[in-house]
Write a structure and sequence with these properties.
With about 475 residues, the chain is α+β, with helices and mostly antiparallel strands. Helices cover about 35% and strands about 15% of the residues. The strands form three sheets. It has a six-stranded antiparallel beta sheet with strand order 1-2-6-5-4-3. Strands 7-8 form a two-stranded antiparallel ribbon. It has a two-stranded antiparallel ribbon with strand order 9-10.
């Protein structure tokens, strides 16, 4: 049936073509020809289907033309819903690079993002906004100086599909090499020199002692030039998010002061690897706490040599039979014993001949070693009944009689007591329970009695100024 229809189709086309040919010069034929002809505009302006012919949005043009510098530091957190608008290359003596971003998100979202990023990734926050509406962050990490300005911005003449508000984001940074160079200036002093100055460990050395985690400073080769006085090196730990929220700031402050060394300087010098893991839940040992205790105390009282603890020299006769002069932490452990801050034969405890440097530190030991540095005087007399009446501990009977005085003295420190700061409200001391690194650091965050003392945050401000 289909083949019989085909001749009729061909016949219709033949009649149509014949009519067009016959009327080639007629107006109707000319109109039909023009309607079927190609548009001459397409020859000079070809169109790619799916793309708009109108003006592209400025943000879309910037995405294709504005790019971050090749050496843009990977440590700098970038807000995902912000589009790069402009990059100003480094210029001038500061060598600061500026980047301009625009986001459709509210400013408080972006401020919350950067606050979380800086805290989680262990940036040293120098300045932060006072409210959630925006403001300026200034932070440092690994000698990288960073400034993030967050400002709400009204948008005018926008299309119906665009948001009516936006947030302007300015990220300025100083490259690592420049920041490092700027942070290590040298000074000239005609009255001082580091040549032939006895260092810790020399029998002729007289304090004050820098914290134990300081690297040795080479003496100046010129008689009229010295480098700045040694200061503790800021430490960076990337696992502080594993510590409880209420302890993180205490740990960060002490890390910024450079007192939470995981290894002694002697051990570090023989090691080819370094770690930036603090491991806050790990149990702290006797040797670690001894090293931190001296370093924290001396950092808190950096401007008061009378309150600093002197490190012992290697020529000193060891007071503990299990800590020789060759031990990497001998100077700190022996120094605490000679100052009478830890039990030893020197303090009248003739039975304490072992220090057990790698044994876990217990809660009561933390208090016994720390409280003399808080009160700066003889601890009060104490008995079991006095501790029960003050603290009300259900397990007071388990506290070593030698530790009762420290526990009672800590109660007299009120809200600044170590027990309240570290363990919060508790009716159980658990005196024999091992102390974690995070707990030890929180205890060392403040030295002194109620109303008269110094915190790591205050010491950090003095150091920066």
């Amino acid at each position: 049936m289909f083949p019989c229809k085909r001749p009729s189709v061909f016949l219709i086309w033949a009649v149509l073509l014949t009519s067009l040919t016959a009327c080639a010069n007629s107006p109707v034929a000319k109109n039909l020809e023009e309607s079927l002809a190609a548009d001459p505009k397409l020859q000079s302006n070809p169109v790619v289907f799916g793309e708009s012919q109108g003006n592209q949005p400025q943000a879309q043009q910037n995405e294709s033309t504005v790019q971050l510098p090749p050496d843009f530091p990977k440590d700098i957190p970038l807000y995902s819903n912000a589009k790069l608008q402009e990059v100003t290359p480094a210029s001038g003596s500061e060598n600061r690079v500026s980047t301009h971003w625009l986001s459709s998100d509210p400013s408080n979202f972006i401020a919350s993002f950067y606050s979380s990023q800086f805290q989680t990734n262990n940036w040293q926050i120098l300045q932060q906004p006072t409210d959630d509406a925006g403001g300026t962050f200034e932070a440092r990490r690994n000698d990288l100086l960073l400034k993030v300005s967050i400002q709400p911005k009204s948008v005018t003449n926008v299309t119906p599909n665009q948001p009516q508000t936006a947030t302007e984001l300015l990220i300025d940074y100083v490259p690592n090499s420049t920041a490092t160079a700027q942070s290590t200036p040298t000074t000239t002093n005609l009255n001082e020199t580091t040549n032939d100055v006895p260092q810790p460990g020399n029998p002729q050395f007289i304090g004050p002692i820098p914290p134990a985690n300081l690297a040795a400073q080479p003496p100046s080769t010129a008689t009229n030039q010295t480098t700045p006085a040694p200061t503790p090196e800021s430490q960076e730990f990337n696992d502080l998010n594993k510590a409880p929220q209420e302890w993180r700031q205490h740990i960060q402050d002490l890390a910024a002061l450079g007192v939470l060394s995981i290894e002694s300087e002697a051990t570090k010098s023989n090691s080819t690897t370094t770690t930036n893991q603090f491991e806050p839940a790990k149990i702290v040992t006797h040797r670690e706490y001894a090293r931190w205790l001296i370093a924290a105390n001396n950092a808190m009282y950096a401007s008061n040599p009378a309150k600093q603890i002197r490190l012992a020299s290697e020529s000193t006769q060891p007071v503990f039979s299990d800590v020789s002069a060759k031990d990497p932490d001998f100077s700190a452990i022996q120094g605490l014993a000679e100052a009478g801050l830890i039990p030893s034969p020197l303090s009248g405890d003739s039975t304490v001949v072992l220090f057990r440097p790698d044994a876990p530190l217990t809660r009561e030991q933390l208090l016994v070693w720390k409280l003399p540095l808080d009160t700066r005087q003889a601890l009060p007399s104490a008995n079991l009944d006095a501790v029960k009446q003050t603290w009300g501990f259900q397990d007071a009977a388990r506290i070593d009689p030698k530790a009762l005085r420290a526990v009672l003295a800590d109660y007299q420190n009120g809200e600044q007591s170590n027990i309240r700061r570290v363990f919060g409200y508790t009716t159980l001391l658990q005196p024999k329970k091992p102390v974690t690194r995070a707990e030890a650091a929180t205890a060392l965050w403040y030295f002194g009695s109620q109303g008269e003392g110094v915190s790591a945050a205050e010491a950090l401000k003095l150091k920066r100024s």
